[in-house]
Amino acid sequence: MPPSQTASPPLNMAVRLAVFYGGYFLVGGVLFPFWPLLLEVRGLQAGQIGLLLALALWLRAAAGPFVAWQADRSGAPKKVLVACAVAALAVMPSFYWAAEFWPLLLATFAFFFAYSSVGPLAETISLRTVSAEQGYG
User: Fold this and answer.
1) What phi-psi label fits residue 80: left (phi over 0), alpha (psi between -120 and 50 degrees) or beta?
2) Distance between CA 109 and CA 51 in Å, rounded?
3) Residue 113 to residue 57: CA distance in whole angstroms
4) Category of 10 on φ-ψ map: left (φ > 0), alpha (ψ -120 to 50) or beta
5) Would you say 135 and 83 are in contact if contact means Cβ atoms under 8 Å apart?
6) I need a surface site. Which of 14, 74, 80, 129 has the fewest CB within 10 A?
7) Cα angle 62, 63, 69; round to 5
8) In the predicted model, is pLDDT for residue 137 greater than 80?
9) Mapping DSSP to helix (H, G, I), strand (E, B) and coil, where does residue 92 land?
């Protein structure tokens, strides 16, 4: 097979996926270890911090199937992925500005609803890309 017709995905797609995953895990790697400390510095009580952390975990379980259903229904998982990523990035600064429990609860809901759906959608798109281009799986 000539080099221009190899069965591997284009390099630019591999680079785009690598940059995307790097950014995705960078956000998680910075946010998750320090977020409870930020909440404590903001003056939240231990029970309130626990509630926000629990909400984040529950949203990971609840939002994923709903957003995946929407992505399948729309037939455009990349658009849903981009919408979720942009929404998560747009909400993230609200953690800086919100200083009380209720605004932080709203920001937590909005951010983790969007952010928790990004990873599974990205994996689906990555595997579809690889399987279509390389006959993987």
Assistant:
1) alpha
2) 11
3) 10
4) beta
5) no
6) 74
7) 105
8) no
9) coil
Helix and strand totals (H; E) in the chain: 5, 0
Query: Model confidence at 131, in pLDDT bands (50, 70, 90)?
Result: confident
Helix ranges, 75-136 (H): 77-91, 94-97, 101-134
* Structure token digits, residue 40: 């404590």
Name residue 47's amino acid: G
Which pLDDT does position 9 carry in this prediction?
Answer: 54
Query: Can you tell me the mean pLDDT for 81-92?
Result: 95
The SS3 of residue 76 is coil
Residue 49 confidence (pLDDT) above 60: yes
Q: How many residues does the chain have?
A: 137
Contacting residues for 91 by C-beta, under 8 A, at least 6 apart: 107, 110, 111, 114
User: pLDDT value at position 3?
Assistant: 55
Per-residue model confidence (pLDDT) at position 5: 56
Torsion angle of the four alpha carbons 76, 81, 84, 86, in this order, in degrees rounded to the nearest 10: -110
Q: Is pLDDT at 124 greater than 90 in this prediction?
A: no
